[in-house]
Amino acid sequence: MRGVVATAATPLVFLAEIPYLLSQRVENVFASQASLVQQTAELERRVLELSQVSQQFLALKMENERLRELLGSRARLPAEVLVAELVGIVPTPNTHQVIIDKGRDARVQVGQAVIDAEGLFGQVVEVDAFSSRVLLISDADHAVPVQVNRNGVRSIAGGTGELDRLQLEKVSVTADIREGDLLETSGLGGRFPRGYPVGFVETVLIEPTSSFAVVTVRPLAALDRSRHVLVVFSAPEEAGGGVFPEDESEETSDEAPGEAEASTAADLNSSIEAAAEMNEVEQ
Amino acid sequence: MNPAQGGWLILLTLALAMVLGIVHLPETWPQWLGWLRPAWVSLVIFYWVMELPHRIGLIAAWVIGLFVDVLQADPLGLNGALLAAITYVAWRFYERLRMYSVLQQGVVVFVLVLASELLRMLVQDMMFNRGVGWGPLLPALVSLLLWPFVAIALTRLRLQFHVA
C-alpha cells in the first residue's frame, strides 16, 4: 500500500527538489574564479593525500589477509557499492530521512547500509520502484552497533534528533572510552557491515550520581550536506564475521512500527552480550 | 454549462501545496526555517471545501492525506485522518465560514491547523518518543498569516477558470 502511493508520489518529490538544484546552479554560475582556483588546489592536494593512503592500504590489506589466514578466520570480502544521488529530504525537522534516486530497479533492499565519502550515513528503510528512503544515523529512532577503533570496546550509538550529535547508550562509567576515540561499525546485529567509520567521541561526561557515562559522538558523515552517497551491497555474514544470522535482526525490527528497521537499543544490547559470550567460548 | 468543471485546477493546487510542503530549501538558508513551514495542504483543502463543498468529500481528503503521509514519512493514515477532520469542519460550517471576513477565516484556520499539529505531535510522541513542545504553534501562526494571500490567490484562480 505504502509502496504504491510512494511510487505515485515520486514526481512530486522530484518537483520539490527543483528550487534547491536551481540555487546550486546559481551558486556555481556566480562562483568567483579565485574561489574555484582555491577549490581545485584543495582537491588536488586531497587526491595526492588519498592516493598515498591507498598505496599503503593495498599493502596493509594483503598483510591483513595473510594474518587472518594465519588466525584461521575468513578474509573480509570487499563490499560492492552503488552510487546514489540524493533527490529529496523529508522536511519535518525531527524526522531525519532522505530520498535517493535508486530503488527496486537497482536492486536496493530494505536494511542496506548507506555511507558517504566520510563515514556511515544511514540505512535504507523503504524501497519504491525508482527511489528509496534512507533513515539517517542521527534520527532519534536510529541506533547502530559500534566499537571503539582503539580497543574494540562495543557500544551502541543512538541518534539524538540533532544532525551533529549521536549518543552512546548505556556506557558503563568504567568503560575505556576517551574523547577523540574513533568509533566504527562493529557488524554485530547483522545489519551494518563491519568497519565503516561512524564518528569521533566528542565528550565523555561521568556523573557521580549515574551508573552510566554520557558519551556524545560527532558523526563523520556530512549528514546535512552530502549529495552523493553509496549504498553498500554485502551479505551481513560475509562482512560481519557471521556472528548473527540475518533473520534475528529482522525479528527485532518488526517490533518498531512506522519507520521500522532501526533496531532498538535494548535488543542490540542483548545481542552484544550474546556475542561476548560466544567470543569467550571461542577463546 | 457543465455543472462540475475545473477539477484539474483543484488537483493542481493540491499537488502544488504538497510540493511546497516538502520543498528542499537551499542549505545556505538557516535551518530553523524548517519549523516555520505552514500547513499548505490544510490551507488549500480548507479553501476548496469551504467554497465548493460538493466537490471534495471526506474520502478525497483522506486519499490526499495518504500522499502527504508518504511524502512526509508520517505513519500511514495520520494525515488522512487530520485532513478529513479539517474537511468535515469546513463542510459542516461552510455557509457560515463564507460570510466571515478573511481575518475571521484565518482564525478558524489557525485553530484547525494548531489542533491537527498538536494531534500529530501526540501521535509521533506515542509512536516514536519524539517528545512534546511548543513546535505546533509556529506552523499554525504562519498559516494564519498566509491565509489571506492563499484565499485571494485561489479565489482569483477559481473565478478565472470558472471552477464550480
- The poorly predicted ranges of chain B are none
Global structural class of chain B: mainly alpha
**SSE order of chain B:** HHHHHHH
When the domains of chain B are counted, the total is 1
Please provide the ordered H/E string of secondary-structure elements of chain A.
Answer: HHEEEEEEEEEEEEHHH
**Number of continuous helical runs of chain B:** 7
Q: In what order do the strands lie side by side in the largest sheet of chain A?
A: 1-2-5-4-3-12
Uncertain spans of chain A: 236-266
Number of strands of chain B: 0
Q: What portion of residues of chain A is helical? A: 25-40%
Q: Rounded to an integer, what's the Rg of chain A over CA atoms?
A: 20 Å
Number of strands of chain A: 12
Overall mean pLDDT of chain B: 87
The largest inter-chain interface, given as chain pair and residues per side, is: A-B, 34 and 31 residues
Helical element count of chain A? Answer: 5
Keywords:
heterodimer; A: 283 residues; alpha+beta; 6-stranded antiparallel beta barrel; 5 helices; B: 164 residues; mainly alpha; 0% strand
Model description:
The complex is a heterodimer of chains A (283) and B (164). With 283 residues, chain A is of the alpha+beta class. Chain A contains 5 helices and 12 strands. In chain A, strands 1-2-5-4-3-12 form a 6-stranded antiparallel barrel. Chain A is globular, with a radius of gyration of 20 Å. Chain B is mainly α. Chain B has one domain (7-20, 37-160). Helices cover 70% and strands 0% of the residues of chain B. Chain B has helices at residues 7-22, 40-51, 58-72, 78-92, 94-99, 102-128, 137-160. In chain B, α1 packs parallel to α3 (58-72), α2 packs parallel to α4 (78-92) and α2 (40-51) crosses α7. The longest helix of chain B is centred in the C-terminal third of the chain and has 27 residues, at 102-128. The model of chain B has no long low-confidence stretch (mean pLDDT 87). At the A-B interface, α1 of A face α1, α3 and α6 of B.
